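Entry 12.
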Amino acid sequence: MSEPVGFIREVRGDKVSFFLNRGVNLSFGQMVRIDSGNRSFYARVVDAGSCSTLKTDEQLREAEGKESFGPYSSYRHVDAILFLEKDAGRIRSPTFNPDYMDRVYATSQEDYSVLRLAGELEIGRLRSGEHVLGSVGISVEAIPLMMGMFGMTGSGKTNCELMLNARIVDSSPRTVGLIFDFAGQLLEGKGIRPQQGLRDHPLFHTKVRYYSVRERKMLIGLYTIQPQKLYTFFPDITHHQVRLAHKLYNRLGSTWIEQSREAYGRDGYKGVAAFTDYKSKAVIDALMLKLSSLSPDLFPPSDYSFVDDVVQNVSKGVTCLIDISGISFEEQHHVTCLTASSVAFHYKRMWEGNFEEWKKLPTLLITLEEAHEFLDPNLPKTIFSDIALTYRKYRVGLNAVTPRPSRINPNVFAELWTKVIMKTELRRDRDYLTQNTPYLEYSDTEIKMLDVGEALLISEPQIRFAVPIKVIHYPDYLDERGRVEYDLPPSKPLSEMDEKLRRIQQAGKSLTAKGEG
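Predicted 3D structure (tokens):
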């Protein structure tokens, strides 16, 4: 039994306050154990203070060195929130609370095993003061229950994204990822020291596919865009504009966009009207303005679309990293929404039409950076809102990554059962996190004080409290993981191969000579 760090001075509801022994240091968010009779309670430190039993005038006399009042006239008290109770080996939410003078202990390795924090997708280690204990991870079953990663720029979100997706690659074909990289950091690990990214993962060449505009691997042919896909490209498109698009498609076929744009450029709205009985100038102009915004570099006149390749790879357990840096936000929006909807719809169709084959699909996590630009309630609704609200039964999960959680639609935020919360300095975002996340009601100070790479993890229903973690440094993970052994037979010596090749050549010459004879 370790030495206690303090003892209870007051208890009210789920909030306990205890005196801290001299010479003992704790930290905001640290977990402590309180032994109370046959039960043990676990709590998280949320506040601390330092007080004196002296009156103000006595404090001044002691500070000025005029009088000493003894070493027990000052004390530190710590406030903590209960989150777990252990009674006769049973673990559950607290049914009661501890008593006055009960002893308080820092969590140990034995306590770590009680907390049951290890998930298949390990991303960090439990922080206990200045020490780290066992691994903390997210279960595969938590992926379709949706998740979010929140933290200011420089808080360590990129490293956390790399760790989570590396674990998903490790778990393939049980799990698979679809990653939208807005800043172009995840492939090479920009911002990570030493600089290492997903391309350094030992399974990168077999379990990851990389797409980038710069390498001409991210093309969406105009001939593959049917009118119903316009809702995905342009969330603000009207029913009349889509109706006009259907008429053009029925008249012109797969080249409807190309021919319509040519006619519009040549004869204005009348050129488009000539293809249909639709004569509204306002509707034609509005639709053609949208179609003209499709860049020829990204949307060439062809029947090839990289999205089909993404759907096939994801279905086989190959994680797809889509680098959309270097293009306009409008183009990023088009690519992201079309790709995500195509993959998600594939899962939905398989669930509805071929359930046995759907069960063979890997559990999918879609990582969406800059998520506030797609989930803001003040902006037109996108496919990602639908995924967060309705796609869990298809085993499709969303990981909303953003430095601005306060801009995420509250209905969507409520569906994010797993949250990784990193350092957040903006008060508005901290208030949003603490007011809309269970078990974080008293954690405003802690979120502000988190260091780079530190986080709070909640992953219901597995982890129903905020766990302070140190996210594993991705380069350290690569070093620990090591190279992959493919169990291939050893290659033969070059001399043996040369000798075999020489015999084959001689046999070939002999057959040639006989044929000529």
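Annotation: The chain has three domains: 6-115, 135-214+305-481, 222-292. DSSP finds 19 helices and 18 strands in the chain.
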